[in-house]
């Protein structure tokens, strides 16, 4: 993997430095501390009995007397509430998710009972002795089947199987009437799982000294989990502490309250001793959570050159059985309807988005929430437009992208695109690919008979969106200010406390770089404390590419407030006026090169107060500050991805020969961390494009229950990735940084499908428009030809009539 980046004269450790991640040392030496690594006296392991049916009434339960004391059913948890994710969105139907199934089961794998024992194996032996009697109900294994239902619904009290329907219409009829041509496409993304290295993991116990329930969970959002656990267990929040230790990947899977978290917490509260649950891979693939299953009916109204004038879309999302807390089933529809226009400049828009309840696990936010789907839909449509008007796909995109001189730009869905040059990223990607030479090579043909294809996609990533955006989505918990506490230790080190939590983002390093940029303290002397509600200020947590902007911004503000206190004490120690001193390399530097270290300043505050000035700030060397950008509608990262593929028409194999990225996430705190995040996201995007799928049969039975069935990309499937960075600062954030953690996963499906369709054009194959692009689907497209002609409509030339 290679990177191109403009030269910069950044400090060795500050903002912009390529500092190796501090946290990697412990992980590379096997010294990480994960939930599964923990042990304590009297720990019981928990196993769950899961439903074998997708939809059924629970009519009875039989448990042998010898194990009844170690078994829990829903009726045993009368003092626990169901998980209810409320929403203010119109048409929203509320679902209540019980910690253990109550009344009926709604998907295969839903937990019906739990058992505990000294080991997981013994707990599973007990589970095998539990008998739950089930009566079948109609199964809705697809969104169309669920929409068509007229009697029994997924939730008995509902009037249909729709979680909600959202509508948008902005000047659609006006602009659509001006079109010369209409291009239609239907594109689909299959259901898939997140598959982090570590699945769900939770351990809970009662701390008698603090009189607290302590829940140790592999979560992205410890403060939010404390909030909802306290509610569900009817405890005051000061009696609940959530600790998130090292987390082995999450990708959104761990930013909601899981049923198992509530169950384990209830056991610890009830029995006042420790319990633990570790999800196995089969549980994850069957029942953990699903995402990505979107269907798009796209109709683009364009002029003769391919300029998009209006877009009409119907988006159907298969949301599974339950609305998850706190983001609800409204998150994906809200993101989809708002982000479908992407980086494009057009003024007519009509969209209907439906989220349908089915007998599958509930939808959980997955890296690139909805934006992977909307990018897939709009970018395949852009290529279709280019084919219809006889132009290169990059030319049509250039015609339609928001121009740099229009920034900041408010688009057709009221997204405030803050900064950037989308067209430049497209041009740079074409240059890196050597596009013209590739077209010549494509015409000449490959020596091995494979077909060459070129694909591109440009996208925006709304990151760090805050209060106003989430309030519009109607979620029960709205993010506001993130806070950070910074404290200089008596020997001159620095402690930072933040409410977000890292699950691979490198925060221990990048937050230290922000502090170093302001205070100059060596990052080796800087410690980040996070993931513990008992020790950190409140934050809604790590999701939506928000942590660097929000908590990183809070660290920046807190350090800036701390710096004058350090300077005042340092100036007094130097016997000079504060106006003559500055901070440099961890020292207070005065006239003529005199200086004292921050350690000397700290020593005076903590240990030698007789040396302090009379007017010293009594707040000392500790500051807590809250932060959110003044414009909280998001900082917009963007990128262009482009790829070259070779398609074997005999086997259906697709090989990625080249992959380039031109990205702009504003000021990069650490370019190496940015690149690592992007590489990882692209690997996941390749999985979405070519390999990963969770299919269900008509009975709602999952057909991919092991890693023999659920295929993931490995090292040999991820190509060499060439990357170039722009740095267009956001005008709204500290240091001009933008979030970018999800971006790498957004574009690859669109890029790869566009490249394959480009390769197949010459043989008249049908377009491939459903993920993943398996050999079977590719060969079927070749067999099905011809291409998209029946879906293209040419309108008559408009006539203008002047009326006096």
Overview of this protein structure:
The chain is an alpha+beta fold and 804 residues long. The radius of gyration is 28 Å and the shape is globular. The longest helix has 28 residues. A seven-stranded mixed sheet has the order 4-8-2-15-12-13-14. It has a six-stranded mixed sheet with strand order 10-18-17-16-11-32. Strands 1-31-30-29-21 form a five-stranded mixed sheet, sandwiched between helices. Helix 17 links the parallel strand 30 and strand 31. It contains 19 helices and 32 strands.
Report how far apart the termini are: 66 Å
Counting helices, strands and paired strands, the structural category is alpha+beta
Task: Report the total helices.
Answer: 19
Assign an overall shape. Answer: globular
Largest beta-sheet details: 7 strands, mixed
Average pLDDT, rounded to a whole number, is 94
The residue fraction in helices comes out at: 25-40%
- How big a fraction of the residues is strand? 15-25%
Summarize the structure.
This protein has 804 residues and is an alpha+beta fold. The strands form eight sheets. Strands 4-8-2-15-12-13-14 form a seven-stranded mixed sheet. A six-stranded mixed sheet has the order 10-18-17-16-11-32. Helix 14 packs parallel to helix 15 (547-574).
